[in-house]
Amino acid sequence: MALEAVEDLALHIILLKLGPKDTAKVSCVSKRLRDSASGDLLWSKFSLDDLDLVSPQDPDGNPAPSFKVAYQLWREAFALYPWPLVLRVKRCWGRIRSWLSKNFPEAEATLRGGASESDIERLENLLKVKLPLPTRVLYRFHDGQELAAKKLSGNSHFLLGIMGGYCFSNHRVNVYLLSLSEVIVKTKALAHRLGFLSKYKYIVVAASSTASIKLFFLSCQNGQLTVGARNILTRGKMIQCVPNSLIQSVHDSSGDQQQDAMLLWLEEHGRRLESGIIKVRERKNIKSISLFPEVPPLCSVAVTNGVQIRASAVLVPEFVNSLDYLFAYSIRMSLQPEGCIINGMTFDSCQLYWRHLLIRSNGDIISNVDGEAVIRKYPLLRPGEGEFVYESFTLLPASSISGSAEGYFKFVPGRLADQKGGLFEVQVARFPVEVQDYIY
Fold it and tell me: How far apart are CA 160 and CA 62, in angstroms?
């Protein structure tokens, strides 16, 4: 049966099944098919499915006269790129922006508008590189971040890097995505000290906004992303951030399987945010995305006598050298709403006195942490007061395949100055201290 004879509703369903590309072809057959293929109800569904548009807008967010026109404008704006790649990048940014808007709108506000083709060509000409296709499309949607110092209520601050960070001892890191103009400036500045950048077509794409140095480099040759290790400025030591086996077709515009490390890195970051593996945390009046995992199996959780201990670790690549890997670990302790319960008796507070942690590498104990207090503090826990957080670090040999940490704390019910009973042990369940497939 010819399409001309199909009823309107059935024809609408058929065109929906065909999709935007084949619908556009069918519209050339006859006037009726052209009219049916031009219906805005049809194109609103295409726009929602492909572009997540609930109103007709062009790529710059400006209103379009119809969904069909909006879809055409999107196709024209990204005509240089494989359409499946454009849709994949849009979904990647969409997930990150959606999470930021709900959980950290201050950071979402720092995302810049998309870069133009001329902006990208300027970078490529000045740095003598050719950006991998996925990275080009990523920058077409958002040209990195525009950071500015912000305050809330006079004493709360934000570290707005969307890639997150950590803090331990006096080391604080918060990574943000560089704009193309910053990529040019930082890459040129470092090229004088690191000659291999130009030779192997590396550019700097992300960095810490704090005084602590942490730099991420994208290879425009093979599409891999690396992070500078401890001796990056003297020996050029770097660590890969994404498994090599996942990177493919970074300069091939003819297929539909392009994925460089930058795209994979951002997709995985979005997945971790959405799944709650990492979250926004506020410490010492500073709000930021913390890279310490929050859920099992990367984070251990144990409750003993009403005291909950959560613990996790993260690699600190900027301190890695040829002999040791440095890991920061975060231990969060809190008292459950029912209070501290010992031998059937309930207490409305308890206070830490002693810590004991065992650090293992390849099954062997390499460090035994034993002593009073944590970071010279004796935290007093009460129901409803939130978590007390302390963060420190440990070294594992570079040969380590697997590592872990576990132990216990000793508390007293009541307060150290007014003890309501004897010392009791609170478990720190084993948590992994290992290099993950993706490094941030």
Answer: 27
